[in-house]
Design a protein that fits this description.
This protein is 25% helix and 39% strand. The protein is α/β, with parallel strands linked by helices and 183 residues long.
Length: 183
Amino acid sequence: MALSATIFKADLDISDMDRHYYAHHALTLAMHPSETEERLMVRLLAFALNADEALGFTRGLSAEDEPDLWKKDLTGEIDLWIEVGQPDERRLRKACGRARKVLVYAFGGRSADIWWDKTAKDLARLDNLSVIKLPEESSAALETMAQRTMRLSCTIQDGDVWLTDGQSNVQIHLTPLKTVSSA
């Protein structure tokens, strides 16, 4: 018998001073049986960093042809494709062909560094791809905040992120490894 997803609920208040986006989101996240709480929280962080009323979680690990999050326009075209972790170069190539912009939030400490060293040269030619790395200690601290029901506040300013659940605070300094080429 297949294991079912674990459901998490998050009330998320976002104050993104970089994008002038201020909103409250009531989110439901399904954690795949093979997914860790760290990965779940990085998905939640990716939502906060790109929050928009059209941004949504997909079937994620359950669907081979979908990202972790995406934003579609009114015609159904994919504006933004977001992957979390260390996706395969072929998967990212395919995503770049399907979406206007592709974002990867890499985490995992040394394994993320090895992944980037191995794929950076191949990914350099993908003009609509950005790769951002989270520090290992930040993603580990996010994992400790995972609860089945969460109330979180996220503040974003000058590229830095602060996430709090009222008891603990996590400051995250994102490191861009690759940014979208400006043409």
